[in-house]
Design a protein that fits this description.
alpha+beta; two-stranded antiparallel sheet; 4 helices
């Protein structure tokens, strides 16, 4: 690292979710969605946790207007709770079908979005609402579209 670049403070994002039916939630996210098991721990009183690797993590912070717009585009109505979990996949249609077969309830089928992804919305185990999305354009291709950029772009 150079003197201008300090060491990263955050090394990992972990989303911790309580699931009443632990076995069903693990089976859904590990076996049906395909997240690999990184570790599992147990303790007194039947305490159990499974840590699943979901690849690269990001934290998406949206204002209320953006949250409403995403719901309108993906679902056609306001349905999302305050927190929704999104998973990028290679094939949104096949993954959606596999997850519905594994017990998820489809809220909206794979839908083409203005930001050039194919997104579906599902109610999943552990009371999570999830989006499954497939990117249809590279970040470079998307950068040339209206409305794309970074918050830092406004500062330049």
């Amino acid at each position: 690292m150079t003197a201008e670049q300090p060491a990263p403070v955050v090394r990992q994002l972990r989303l911790v979710v309580e699931a009443e039916d632990h076995e069903a939630a693990v089976a859904f996210f590990r076996d049906a969605l395909g997240l690999s098991e990184e570790a599992a721990f147990s303790g007194d009183g039947d305490a159990r946790v499974v840590i699943l690797d979901a690849g690269r993590a990001t934290l998406e912070i949206a204002n209320p207007a953006q949250k409403r717009m995403i719901d309108e585009v993906e679902v056609g109505r306001q349905v999302a709770p305050r927190i929704r979990v999104a998973f990028e996949v290679d094939d949104a249609r096949a993954t959606t079908a596999r997850l519905v077969a594994a017990g998820a309830a489809e809220i909206a089928p794979p839908t083409l979005t203005p930001w050039q992804s194919l997104n579906s919305r599902l109610d999943a185990p552990a009371d999570l609402q999830i989006t499954v999305f497939e990117e249809l354009r590279t970040p470079e291709e998307r950068a040339g579209l209206d409305g794309f950029g970074t918050g830092r772009d406004a500062d330049d």
